[in-house]
Amino acid sequence: MGEPCIITVAITGSVPRKLDNPAVPITVPEQVESTHAAYEAGAALAHVHVRNDDESSSSDPDKFARLQEGIRKHCPDMIVQFSTGGRGRAMEARGAMLYLHPDMASLATGSVNFPTIVYENPPDFVRSLAATMRDGGIKPEIEVFDLAMLYNTADLVAEGLILAPPHVQFVFGVKHALPARRDILEFEVAKLKELLPGATWTAAGIGRHQLEVNHWALEMGGHCRTGLEDNVRWDKTTLAPSNAKLVERVVELCGTYGRPVATATQARTLLGLPATAQQAAA
């Protein structure tokens, strides 16, 4: 059997569900319930956003606090990862909830074009977020939408703003960013091993590329991301019924590739994260 695969579930994202899939959880109770179901299905890490009443992206620390509290209550050892992404949120607000000390937070280390906007991550802003995460004991998940972001990450590790070994996520299928091509993932993983030995990695495919990228990651020894944030459809025509069903699909794939599904406790060890208070007391 190969190394256990950490399954990340990205439960919500920033697209209003009324435009796509009514199964996308919006309110905090819906998000907690959906995360718990995904955890029971095999997800070890939850990547989370919160929403305003109009379903737009929010930076409300109170909502992040209630969401984290709910996840930790119902999924005690699950890894909680806050999004610091920029769609619909002012730059100065994107790290406003990090004082809540989630286990992890996303960190894009450069700017990139998205379908209709520029995803802005200026160098000084990236350095500030990285320092906040380091000083708060929060492990960043490096979001790589472009090769330059991988080299930027190596520089930040060399400067001590990101602690080694980092965890990196390669994102494919966003229009104007990295196309979903396996040879690009193979190249980037090779560069990751060269630049940052010991780093862990996962790969995410957007939309119709989600399942395809899951296959590549499992075969190449990486970890997997799934969830309604990235793919509101089960296939090209059918809406995905839930986050849990998308997780179950990856669990089945893990068996195909001889990869055990990592428990949340195993995932903490693989990512170098501390045990939860409950685990430490056991």
In words, what does this structure look like?
This protein has helices spanning 28-41, 61-74, 123-135, 147-159, 182-195, 210-220, 243-256, 264-271, 277-281, and strands at residues 7-10, 45-48, 50-51, 57-58, 79-82, 104-108, 112-113, 118-119, 139-144, 167-172, 200-205, 223-226. It is of the alpha/beta class and 282 residues long. The chain has one domain (7-281): Aldolase class I (TIM Barrel, Alpha-Beta Barrel), CATH 3.20.20.70. Helix 4 packs parallel to helix 5. The protein is globular, with a radius of gyration of 17 Å. The model has no long low-confidence stretch (mean pLDDT 95).
Query: How is the biggest beta sheet arranged?
Result: 8 strands, parallel, barrel
- Let me know the average pLDDT: 95
Radius of gyration: 17 Å
Q: Please provide the ordered H/E string of secondary-structure elements.
A: EHEEEHEEEEHEHEHEHEHHH
SSE-based structural type: alpha/beta
CATH fold topology: TIM Barrel
Give the count of helical stretches: 9
Gross CATH architecture: Alpha-Beta Barrel
Whole-number tally of structural domains: 1
What is the CA-CA span between the terminal residues? 29 Å
CATH class: Alpha Beta
Output the keywords:
282 residues, eight-stranded parallel barrel, two-stranded antiparallel sheet, alpha/beta, 17% strand, globular
Short description:
The protein is an alpha/beta fold and 282 residues long. It is built from nine helices and twelve strands. The strands form three sheets. The protein has an eight-stranded parallel β-barrel, surrounded by eight helices.
